[in-house]
């Protein structure tokens, strides 16, 4: 098994001892992305803006690994408040054309940097 670590300055640096993504066996396993602007290090305000920024970060990480949003096969969405499910769904859907990836969604007690949402993905390389 050959493992490739993926890193890009177009997405926020990892907040701990982990990689932005790892490519192995034809797939990219991307760590959860928050709504942090990589240029400023500032968290976007509100769940909608954080969702859009998280997807921009995911896109940057996938592109650094030679993939793209349309190659995502699985997402996991972590919510600070599941009452934001409908609002996030509308934004989430706008990032995909046609077939949607498989997905899990959970409300959690707390996210890093007190974020409203975190999104991780698995994509074909």
From TrEMBL:
<dbReference type="GO" id="GO:0019239">
    <property type="term" value="F:deaminase activity"/>
</dbReference>
<dbReference type="GO" id="GO:0005829">
    <property type="term" value="C:cytosol"/>
</dbReference>
<dbReference type="Pfam" id="PF01042">
    <property type="entry name" value="Ribonuc_L-PSP"/>
</dbReference>
<protein>
    <submittedName>
        <fullName>Endoribonuclease L-PSP</fullName>
    </submittedName>
</protein>
<dbReference type="InterPro" id="IPR035959">
    <property type="entry name" value="RutC-like_sf"/>
</dbReference>
<dbReference type="InterPro" id="IPR006175">
    <property type="entry name" value="YjgF/YER057c/UK114"/>
</dbReference>
<dbReference type="InterPro" id="IPR019897">
    <property type="entry name" value="RidA_CS"/>
</dbReference>
<dbReference type="InterPro" id="IPR006056">
    <property type="entry name" value="RidA"/>
</dbReference>
<comment type="similarity">
    <text>Belongs to the RutC family.</text>
</comment>
């Amino acid at each position: 098994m050959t493992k490739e670590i993926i890193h890009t300055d177009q997405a926020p640096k990892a907040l701990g001892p982990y990689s932005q993504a790892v490519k192995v066996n034809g797939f990219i396993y991307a760590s959860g992305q928050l709504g942090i602007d990589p240029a400023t290090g500032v968290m976007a305000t509100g769940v909608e803006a954080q969702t859009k920024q998280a997807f921009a970060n995911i896109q940057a990480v996938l592109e650094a690994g030679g993939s793209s949003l349309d190659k995502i096969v699985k997402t996991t969405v972590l919510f600070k408040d599941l009452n934001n499910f409908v609002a996030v769904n509308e934004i989430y859907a706008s990032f995909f054309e046609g077939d949607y990836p498989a997905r899990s969604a959970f409300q959690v007690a707390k996210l890093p940097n007190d974020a409203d949402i975190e999104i991780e993905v698995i994509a074909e390389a």
